[in-house]
Amino acid sequence: MSSNNLFFPFAAELLDRYEKDERVAMIDAANYIKNVIIPDSYGFSRFKSTNGWATWKRAWKNMDLNMNWKNTPYFKSIIKNNGYDGKDIHYWKYRIKAIEHNYVSAWDWQWYFTMAAHNQLGIYPKTSLISNIGFGEDATHTTGSTIPSRYKANEEIVFPLQHPKYVVPYEDFEQGFYKSNNTFRNTILQLIPFSLKTILKKWIRG
Fold first, then answer.
1. For labelling alongside 130, which of 28, 43, 63, 148 has CA 20 to 30 A away?
2. For residue 25, which phi and psi values (nearest 5 degrees)?
3. Number of domains in the chain
4. DSSP-based three-state secondary structure for 13
5. Do residues 64 and 112 make contact, with C-beta atoms less than 8 angstroms apart?
6. Which phi and psi (to 5°) does residue 160 adopt?
7. pLDDT tens profile 117-148
8. Is the per-residue pLDDT at 170 higher than 70?
9. Rounded to whole angstroms, how far apart are CA atoms 183 and 201?
10. Which helix (H) or strand (E) holds 175?
11. Known InterPro entries for this protein (predicted)?
């Protein structure tokens, strides 16, 4: 990741503003939903992304790497509170199983669920303040040869920041985020077992 240096003052101001607000658990540096305009300098969402981010000790102390909630009656409630509809429960069961069988190296999904279990929101900037430059054959997850334009920080945020009046998920952003994660390509990829994906990645990389 490469910051355009505006994320640091952005995060510093919001870390101070929401320091004691238990409704908020993280501040994201990226906003890849280019077709939605957030009316203020930033917005809130149940969806999360850890492509450059900041949080508070009060929030991180809740981190549940073992996902103990998955064996409770609140399983479906927590998944839905992560921003996904009830029909997506198979999507996350699939990923939870992948973590349990060590098919993926992940801690971020556990963090997303931790926030959902505590009914907490994330903050997204109006425009991306960070570029994902970690694309290439040797990358852990982003193995493409070129960096898609949506992963580049090509705009600047304006100071002083314009703060939202309400601490609620911004619905247009939520819909845009959901649609971007439910493309035909992603649906097809979900049908491929993680064990097979791991084998294919090793074969492709030689």
1. 63
2. -125, -15
3. 1
4. helix
5. no
6. -70, 150
7. 999 999 999 999 986 655 445 544 445 455 45
8. yes
9. 22
10. helix 171-180
11. Nucleotide-diphossugar_trans (IPR029044)
For 45-70, the three-class secondary structure string (H helix, E strand, C coil) is ECCCCCCCEEECHHHHCCCCCCCHHH
Beta strands 42-45 and 121-125, pairing class: antiparallel
Task: Pull the structure tokens for residue 178.
Answer: 């959901």
Q: How far apart, in whole angstroms, are the C-alpha atoms of residue 125 and residue 106?
A: 24
What the block records as the tokens of 128 is 């991306």
Task: Give the pair of three-digit tokens for residue 168.
Answer: 């609620």
Residue 66 makes CB contacts below 8 A (sequence gap 6+) with: 110
* Extended beta strands in the chain, E state: 2-3, 24-28, 42-45, 53-55, 121-125, 130-131
* Dihedral angle of Cα 26, 37, 131, 6, to the nearest 10 degrees: -70
Strand 24-28 relative to strand 121-125, pairing: parallel
Nearest to residue 40, comparing CAs of 178, 162, 158? 162
The closest alpha carbon to 67, from 91, 48, 92, 90, belongs to 92
The band of 197, judged by pLDDT with boundaries at 50, 70 and 90, is low
Query: What's the rounded Cα separation, in Å, for the pair 52 and 15?
Result: 14
- Give the count of beta carbons closer than 10 Å to the beta carbon of residue 110: 15
CB distance 161 to 10 below 8 Å: yes
Residue 54 to residue 51: CA distance in whole angstroms: 10
